[in-house]
Amino acid sequence: MKIKEYRTQFIQELTSMYGEGEAESFFYLILEEKQQLKRIDLALQPDLVLSASAIKVWNSILEQLKLEIPIQYLLGKTSFYGLDFEVNENVLIPRPETEELVDWIISNNQKSEPSKNLKILDIGTGSGCIAISLAKNLPNTHVFAIDVSEKALATAKKNAVHNEVTVTFIEQNILETLDLGKDFDIIVSNPPYVRNLEKEEIKKNVLDNEPHLALFVEDHDALIFYRKIAELAQKNLSNSGQLYFEINQYLGKEMVELLQKMDFKNIELRKDIYGNDRMMKGLHL
Ligand code: GLN
User: Which residues are S-adenosyl-L-methionine-binding (predicted)?
Assistant: First the structure.
């Protein structure tokens, strides 16, 4: 079958669910990943065909897209901060908001003296997207990354190798960690922060497919991870060390209060491109 003909059929079948634009973008993502072809190749060679076995693969992806399984899981990869990351059901799919957090950290630190070796800790690393993009973009760093999930860490390790950076991975439950005994210059975390009461705002494809361990917290103690990480940061950040968080958009005020109470200085709250309170920074002076 000609790819062009399959394209028409594929987009048609997904348009009512996703809209034509998104259905088309899925088509080209799969084309690139599975056939190693770009849009331009199809324009230049309109007679290219899909083999019977390729059609089977495409049809299987199509059926799973109809079940709202995220395209990133179906292709097993995604892009974050210009880098490729393997993803699977054990790790959260990296979000654009988190790229904004990474960008903030990089712009605050890229001018630090070249002689200074930055020690960075990422807590709840998941796919490793924060740890790896910081290691890749900040020179002279030693990045450590913790996660409670052995399976997430296995994915993060592959991502570090694939992106040619060295990260020290540690399997640990942050709620049980008392002291890491290192003088970190930067501690960063995007911990679980979605409350049950916000569950209905979460899209079905996220709810049904992404790891709840990485997403949800109890309503009555929504800041449990932040409190614990801030306590650890008081002990394990160097003098004028920086603490960064991605946060729940509805809890900006509570987060500022928490860091003030714990004596962090120069506290900054930032919005993401959607205008939601999404990240913050505090200094340990
Ligand atoms: N921002 C994520 C979402 O949209 C939640 C990430 C998290 O809980 N850390 O689902």
Answer: 124-128, 147, 190
**Half-sphere CA count of 114, side-chain side, radius 13 A:** 0
C-beta of 124 in contact with ligand 1 (< 6 A): no
Q: How far apart are CA 102 and CA 225, in angstroms?
A: 19
Q: Sheet containing 265-271: give its strands across.
A: 167-171, 141-147, 118-123, 184-189, 237-246, 277-284, 265-271
Q: Which residues contact 210 (CB under 8 A, 6 or more apart)?
A: 70, 89, 92, 93
Q: Is 236 in the pocket of ligand 1 (CB under 6 A)?
A: no
Rounded to the nearest angstrom, the distance between the alpha carbon of 51 and the centre of ligand 1 is 39
Residue 127, beta-bridge partner list: none
Q: Position 181: which residue type?
A: G
Whole-model pTM: value is: 0.94
Dump the DSSP string for 37-82.
--HHHHHH-TT-B--HHHHHHHHHHHHHHHTT--HHHHHTEEEETT
Q: Does domain 89-284 have CATH number 3.40.50.150?
A: yes
Across the chain, what does the average pLDDT equal?
96
CA nearest to 55, candidates 34, 74, 73, 69: 34
Distance 261 CA to ligand 1 centre (A): 25
pLDDT of 166 reads: 97
Is 129 close to ligand 1, i.e. is its CB under 6 Å away?
Answer: no
State the ipTM, two decimals.
0.90
pLDDT tens digit sequence for 50-96: 999 999 999 999 999 999 999 999 999 999 999 999 999 999 999 99
Which atom of ligand 1 is closest in space to residue 190's alpha carbon?
Answer: 9
C-alpha closest to that of 62 among 20, 2, 9: 9
192 is in an annotated binding site: yes
β-pairing, 118-123 vs 141-147, is parallel
